[in-house]
Structures are given as C-alpha cells and as structure tokens.
Write a structure and sequence with these properties.
The chain has 179 residues and is α+β, with helices and mostly antiparallel strands. The protein contains 3 helices and 14 strands. The protein has helices at residues 15-29, 74-81, 101-109, and strands spanning 4-10, 35-39, 42-48, 54-60, 65-70, 86-89, 91-92, 95-96, 119-123, 130-133, 142-149, 154-161, 164-171, 175-177. β7 and β8 (95-96) form a beta hairpin. The longest helix has 15 residues, at 15-29.
Length: 179
C-alpha cells in the first residue's frame, strides 16, 4: 500500500492531544510501519492591538483537523479512528479519501518546510471605523478607515485636512481605535 496523507476531524481544541495520543498508540501497538507522520498546520499571526502594540501568536490553519500520513489498512484505520478526540476521517460515504498532492501542498504552503509558521499580520481595525493618528506628522488627527492592507501592514485613513477629506496611508502602529 502507498503512504498517503489523510485528514482527521477532531473535537475543536483537541488537535494536539489527538496527535500525542496517536503517537503513543503507534509506539505501544508497533504501527511505526503503517503510520509515518502527523501534522497540525500552524501559522504565525501578528495582531496589531490598540496603540500599535503587536501581539504574535501561533494559530491553527485548519482548526479541528489533523493531517496524518499513513498506509491505510484495517488495523491502522481502527487505531486512528478509535483514538479519543477523533470524530472521523474526512471522506465520502464514511470512507477516508487521501489528499491529492496539490491539496497537501496548498495546506502546507501556509507553513514552511521546517515546521515553522510563516508570518501573517492581522488587526482588529475595520473599514468605516473612526481612528486617531497617534504618531507621525498627522498625530492627533482623527479619521475614518477606508482600506486595510494586511500584506503590507498599512491602513488608508480619510483625514479631514483644511475641511477636506484626504486619504492618508499609515502603518497599523500609527493609529489607535476610538470606538
């Protein structure tokens, strides 16, 4: 049989426990030749809080799911399926369906080859929200968020300068929410 990647559905928040339980079951039942790898895809997310404070944390790419590389036979299927916290394999009509190579690559592209999570930025700012500019030449001006670019970490704010709405591009650290 071929080594293929399958997706397990787990109780939300139990992904790490399921991984550890499967590892222990592999060792105790001698299934090292049937189950080869278990991954919980993670990514590093930097959130910009009020006042430009950055909080970095790791988040699961697919909460409630675990990837497992295995040769699917009755014994390995039963061991994995009956692990506490596992609700089943992802598949059709109750049968596990392996991931296509490109599907696996898409999921893992969000994490790098070393298992480290790539960096991603998020913010709690929303379009239409009123913000105060806290640094730079426009410090102490108020404005309304018109555009958010997570990739570059920038926000476009409409600021009233001389009675006229002017779009200004600022970094997340330069603004603070007023709401």
């Amino acid at each position: 049989m071929a080594k293929r990647w399958y997706v397990l559905h787990t109780y939300s928040g139990y992904e790490n426990k399921v991984k550890q339980d499967i590892i222990h079951r592999i060792e105790s039942l001698g299934l090292e030749n049937n189950i080869f790898d278990i991954k919980i895809p993670m990514e590093e997310v930097t959130e910009i809080k009020d006042g430009g404070r950055r909080v970095t944390s790791e988040k699961k790419v697919l909460p409630g799911y675990v990837l497992i590389r295995m040769e699917l036979d009755d014994k390995s299927w039963s061991v994995v399926r009956n692990t506490p916290g596992v609700t089943g394999f992802v598949g059709a009509e109750g049968k596990p369906v392996p991931l296509a190579r490109d599907e696996y690559n898409k999921i893992m592209k969000r994490t790098n080859q070393h298992g480290d999570a790539p960096k991603r930025t998020s913010t709690n700012l929303q379009i239409g929200e009123t913000v105060k500019v806290i640094s730079g030449p426009l410090a102490d001006f108020d404005g309304t968020v018109s555009e958010i670019d997570l990739q570059s970490g920038k926000v476009r704010v409409m600021v009233s300068i001389f009675g006229r709405e002017t779009p200004v591009e600022l970094s997340f650290e330069q603004v603070s929410s007023l709401d």
